[in-house]
Description:
The chain crosses the membrane at residues 12-32, 44-63, 70-88, 94-115, 135-152, 158-178, 207-225, 237-256, 268-286, 298-319, 331-351, 357-374. This protein is mainly alpha-helical. The chain has helices at residues 2-34, 39-66, 70-86, 94-108, 111-124, 130-155, 160-175, 193-200, 205-216, 219-231, 236-255, 257-263, 266-284, 290-298, 300-318, 321-353, 358-374, 379-382.
Amino acid sequence: MQVNTINLRLALVYMALFAGIGVHLPFFPLWLAAQGLEASDRAIILAVPMFIRVFLLSFLIDWGLRAGSVARAIIIYALTASVLTAALPFQSSMALLAIFSILSSLAWMPALPLLDALAMGEMRAGRADYGRARLWGSVAFVVLTITGGAAIEAFEVWVVIPILFAVLVSVAITAAFLPGDAAARPAGDEPRALPTLLERTRTVRPLFLAAALLQASHAVFYVQGSVHWKHLGYSETAIGALWMVAIIAEILMFLWSRRIIARFEAKSLLMMAGAAACLRWSVMAFDPPWPILVSMQILHACSFACTHIATIWLIGRLFSGFLAARAQGLYASLLGAANGVTMLAAGPLYACFGGRAQLAMAFIAAIAVVLTLTSRADPARDTGSAA
């Protein structure tokens, strides 16, 4: 029963966090567009937090660990983000709107890496199943994507901000029930943290870079996908359904994650993810008909979920305890840099080439495949578990 109880508490926070993401990713760009922002301006607003978190995220995660409770840190970050989000409709200039949008995104960025580190710690201790807890985040993403699209059709795009505010408050409420975390450590452990992280990740850095590039290859899809589909004539409900297909595929992959990790090494997972991403973006670049578009969305199970599972496998293999949280933060910073570049480029690419901009994302995924193929890393041989 203890496993089920801890899984439930973790799952509730994942649900709340991904409910927010399920509204923010597909519909916040539409809200920004309704405020008069052009594609390049929207891309900047969505990309800048990715760049800033390269430098800030590790600090914010360290602060959360020193605070003595991951739950307390998540509550503070979520409430801060909710206040900033609620203020967005009242900004009198585009500059203020951009500043508040960026600050609200930054405020809740540390929550997911902190929660992942806590969940991995519970999994290593045999008290939780990461995949089964995490999949409920994807379920919430699906639900909010569908209901969000329907809400926008019924009440117009202004409803995005109240929904985001509500789900961010729910993150704070559910985080209050998280289990105590072994990841928190006193500041005295910090001097050895970074050297240990760098040494333990030395042989697998190409794999982490490949994973970051694969996730970053989703940039045009994330930033301009909903706008492009709307331009093609799809309704908000249809757009929500396309996102739902992708996330259902992701859910199934997380449901089977324990078996997948037991059967495949990280390199194999990254190869599958890279091949799927190359195919997905190449086909979607040419605006395929609905049945093919749906099938490309199913590939999200590989292009996103396999990549995520591979990174969790690597971090779990390399580290435990507070070092796992710091490793999660360092990888998230690398991911932020890659996402920042591709999201910043997504606006101009889309403005120039429309849907063909996805071909640039296919090229990035191909680079990730080459990195994975040429990497000599063997995590099972080269790494152990560092506490």
